Amino acid sequence: MSGEIVFDPMVPWVVLAVLGGLVAVLVALSLWRGLSGWWLRGLAGLAVLAALAGPSFQREDRRPLSDIIVAVVDESASQDLSDRPDQSAAALERIEAEVAALPDTELRVVRLGDGPGDSGTLLMTALSEAVAEEPRARLAGAILISDGRLHDIDREPDLPAPLHLLLTGQEDDWDRRLAVLSAPAFAILDEEVLLRLRVENQGAVPAGEEGLVPLEIAIDGGEPVEFTVPTGEDLELPVTLPHGGRNVIQFRVATGEGELTDRNNEAVVQINGVRDRLRVLLVSGEPHPGERTWRNLLKSDSSVDLVHFTILRPPEKQDGVPVDELSLIAFPTRELFLDKVDEFDLIIFDRYQRRGILPALYLDNIRRYVEDGGAVLIAAGPDFATAASLYRSPLGEILPAAPTSRVIEEPFLPELTELGRRHPVTQGLTGGGAEPEWGRWLRQIELDPTGGQVAMTGMDGGPLLVLDRVGEGRVALLGSDHAWLWSRGFDGGGPQLELLRRLAHWMMKEPELDEEALDATAEGLSMTVTRRTLGDSVGDLEVTAPDGTVTTLPMEEVAPGRFQADVTGPEMGLYRLAEGDQEAVIALGPSAPREFEQTVATGAVLEEAVAARRGGIRNIADGVPDLRQVREGRPAAGRGWLGITPRGAYLTADVTTRPILPAWAWLLLAAMLSLGAWLREGRR
Question: What per-residue confidence (pLDDT) applies to 253?
Fold first, then answer.
């Protein structure tokens, strides 16, 4: 209960001020003239002014409100290390007991986990949100229970009360961290790229843990290779990517005795391998409309270096033209087909037949080139069905189908086989449904499959496109030279460009076109795992998490030959995936989570913010301090104690206002004083 005098003037305060000045002038004039009732005149004027000011006595019925203390408990990943969870729990329990012993004081507990994505510990954000939910006039203090490793110090709130930090951790804590300083997102195959690494120790590093440490490097989850590297120095590591597409490189440094965690001893880098230039050799047996199709396809890709070998004039042609006038330079056949054939990524024979231009030795060298990892594509025309066919050369040993010598000169509709609907080269081709919506071709070379996989058929279900793997290389046989009709829009056209592009890239071993593969794409802590297969079904997906736990999930068919599973990882790190004989690795989250960049507890980051609010930083390992009430503006931390500032907030339940005197009483008082002044002065 409290009271005070308030005013409710009948006229503006400016008018009252003018009237007050007028009263003062009249009193001064009376005093100057020597009137004995000058003071009564002054009191009468004040009574009139008081009547106009409307003074009242206001009484409030106040109910005191309790003070509020906010405690933010850091439960981020770095707070799970060592005995920090137990320390936090003990500190919070002690604070709850201390607050319960204080009169009219409440405790608000806020628990904080890892920030979204890789944003780390957002301690100040959590404190700001908690403070914003409470009345500012009731905040008596804030206590942070944390290792001091926060990542949003710029978000500290404007607190009207002391701020304290109870620091977890031990004085002898130490940790080792492997940091990737720089790594490219892309790299050219067969060219070295430099990765910069650093192995650094933090905290109270014990004797013997400085100096040289073992470092293991593994690519795509393979067998690791071990090196010995120094700590505290930037390391430059040259790496050559083994294949195109995503390459997952895993680094791991040995775990030291007694270090806080080995979670930051490992780093993962994902680099996409790309080819600098794709070298393609196109060998055309004779000019024909389809030759331009191949040339346009290969020249449209700026990453392709095309060498085109065309036989414009067969040896048997006798037209009397002197040999020295047939060309300006001699074509380097020996250099291309014998000495430098291994430099090509793909060799295409387009309607080529043996005419003695390329000796059997050259063709046998191409066969060896395929077995060692090269690729040959044959687009067969009528020449393939003759005695001069490439099948009757050393190349015949690696071809997946033999010609029957029959050439079918009738319109037919190319169709996908059941296997072709699953094969990455032909799967999902535009218009290739159950009833193809593309145009017809007019010629087909009858083939007798001897191996490989038939992806497309033509007349009477005969093989049209046959794919095969030979040794380390790949071979494709297209039993028609009329694919160019699709590009000309004949009979509605078809996906000729897409078919030939996929065919060429499959032969050049692009990973996304492998028939049997396990692949994954990641976003945050979620990944979509895709299994490509030529089979009708697949087994369960086996997922091995960074901590070694294994989870088995079923995979659902989303398209012919394509199965998927969506997986949400419980933590960031490297995951190993397996289904049957297919394996893959993928990293979820950053290569080094932010929570584990710095793990040794410290109050340095919060020191300035705590000092600005007269608070204190205390190690929980030394004991949880007591809580005391201190007056505002006084130091709020001392030896063995932390202070809070009582706010004295209250809630006004009722307000009563009564005038000191009614207006008529003020006027009566003024009249009586004026009369008294007149009577006093009239006696003289």
Answer: 92
With vertex at residue 338, the alpha carbon angle to CA 335 and CA 340, rounded to the nearest 5 degrees, is 60
pLDDT, tens only, 43-70 = 877 877 877 777 887 776 667 788 999 9
Q: Where does residue 148 rank: exposed (0-12), middle (13-18), buried (19+ CB within 10 A)? A: buried
Q: Strand 346-350 vs strand 278-284: parallel, antiparallel, or unpaired?
A: parallel
Measured N-to-C along each axis, helices 13-33 and 38-53 cross at an angle, to the nearest 10 degrees, of 170
Number of H helices, E strands in the chain: 11, 37
Contact, 437 vs 401, CB < 8 A?
no
Record the tokens describing residue 437, joined without a space.
């919506």
- N- to C-terminal Cα distance for the chain? 52
Structure tokens at 487: 């590009």
Radius of gyration of the chain (CA): 45
CA distance 565 to 546: 19
CA distances from 95 to 74, 98, 144, 284, 335 (A): 15, 5, 11, 86, 84
Q: Pairing mode, if any, of strands 550-553 and 444-449?
A: unpaired
Closest by Cα among 81, 88, 85, 253 to 174: 81
Question: Within 190-316, where are the H helices?
Answer: 289-299
448/402 Cα distance (integer angstroms): 5
Q: Are 421 and 434 a contacting pair, CB within 8 Å? A: no
Distance CA 138, CA 67 (A): 5
For residues 104-125, average pLDDT: 90
pLDDT digits (tens, 9 = 90+) for 502-526: 888 888 888 788 888 888 888 878 8
> Which residue's entry shows tokens 């470092």?
215
Give the 3-state secondary structure of 572-604. Answer: CEEEEEEECCEEEEEEECCCCCHHHCCCCCCCC
State the Cα–Cα distance between residues 507 and 374, nearest whole angstrom.
8
Cα(27)–Cα(465) distance, integer angstroms: 121
Beta bridge partners of 206: none
| Measured distance CA(388)–CA(368) in Å, rounded | 21
**Residue 406, SS3?**
strand
Cα separations (Å) of 638 from 96, 186, 289, 560?
A: 20, 56, 93, 72
653 vs 76, more confident = 76
Q: Which two tokens mark 404?
A: 């029957």
Which H helix or E strand runs over 188?
A: strand 186-188
**pTM for this one?**
0.66
Q: Residue 12 — pLDDT band, cuts 50, 70, 90?
A: confident
Tell me how far apart the alpha carbons of residues 670 and 24 are, in angstroms, rounded to a whole number: 15
Residue 676: closest CA among 34, 26, 31, 40: 40
Cα-based distances in Å from 233 to 22, 127, 195, 597: 87, 38, 14, 16
Write the pLDDT tens digit of every residue in 581-624: 888 888 787 666 788 889 999 999 999 999 999 999 999 999 99
Between CA 203 and CA 170 the distance in angstroms is 10
Q: Is there a contact between 570 and 579 (Cβ–Cβ < 8 Å)? A: no
Region at 347 (left for phi over 0; alpha for psi -120 to 50; beta for the rest): beta
- Main-chain phi, psi angles of 424, to 5 degrees: -60, -25
Single-letter amino acid code for the residue at 381: G
Amino acid at 376: V
| Three-class SS state of 281 | strand
Cα 540 to Cα 489: distance, rounded to the nearest angstrom: 44
The number of residues in the chain equals: 684
